[in-house]
Amino acid sequence: MRLTDLDTFVQVAASGSFTAAGARLGVPKSTVSRRVARLEAALGVSLLRRSARSIELTDDGRALAERCAPALRELDSAMQQVVEEDVPRGVLVVTTAMDFSQSGALARLIVDYRRRYPAVRVELLATNRSLDLFEERVDIGLRLHDAPLQPSDALVARRLRPLASGFFASPQLAPILTHWDQAEPWLLGHSRDVQPASPALVANDYGSLAALLVAGAGFAVLPRFVAEPHLHTGALIPVFEERETAMSQLTLVWLRSRQLAPRVRAFVDLAVQHLGRRSTE
Questions:
Q1: 39 and 64 in contact (C-beta within 8 Å)?
Q2: Cα–Cα distance measured from residue 113 to residue 251, given in angstroms and rounded to the nearest whole number
């Protein structure tokens, strides 16, 4: 039995298709199929049920994948440890939300990391989907969340800091700001006698919302890291500053391992310095 065949099968089990597994491994679909067939022949059992449109794990296949995946991850980490010789090198894959991927705080962290460890290539995956770090081969996740993260035997979580949010608006609204102290209960819904106003515009990401505010659309609640570049240029101004609050938490997560790769350990340490509670950005 070849270790390559076993690793390929685990990738097929995780991704659910030969094509996706091939993309992850950088080999054609036909090679993936051949490796899995060779593993089945070596073990003398059927690991997959194949149809024209899908594949499904057999009971033997599911048991093999569940038992071998952690072992392969440990083996990969151990081999990487030997190759790196305690010097950060190789590829570091980091994922975070779309909005935070464009923040100055993250940009400064990555630039500082690359300056310190030039032998590491950083790949930043910006997505609002919460990726499975193991299945998608991601080293580090920077998670933005409201509710506490669920405990996991597979992940280590390091809480970094709350992310401040507040009200921001275009300077074009300056002439009416003097009247907002009277309108505040109506705008924010803090009076029992009135209902809060319905939003005239909605957006599914804060970057778009900030662009609307810069164009004079009105005012809205934004994370401070989203508003920060526009505050520096004067395109946005803060309002109701006394009502700034923490909208979400920023937490660093990575795969639990006995042998943490130097490139991952170095990023964790530097992220705590850049993004820990001492920072007020």
A1: no
A2: 18
Q: How confident is the model at residue 256 (pLDDT cuts 50, 70, 90)?
A: confident
Confidence of residue 84 (pLDDT cuts 50, 70, 90): low
Query: Which pLDDT tens digit goes with each residue over 205-252?
Result: 788 888 888 888 778 888 888 888 888 888 888 887 666 666 788 999
CATH number, domain 90-161+248-275, options 3.40.190.10, 3.60.160.10, 3.40.50.720, 3.40.50.880: 3.40.190.10
Report how far residue 140's alpha carbon sits from residue 251's, in angstroms, rounded to the nearest whole number: 10
Overall fold of domain 164-245 = D-Maltodextrin-Binding Protein; domain 2 (3.40.190)
Question: What is the fold, at CATH topology level, of the domain defined by 3-82?
Answer: Arc Repressor Mutant, subunit A (1.10.10)
Amino acid at 248: S
Q: For residue 154, what are its two tokens?
A: 């597979």
Q: In Å, how far are 4, 101, 273 from 161, measured between CA atoms?
A: 41, 16, 11
pTM: 0.60
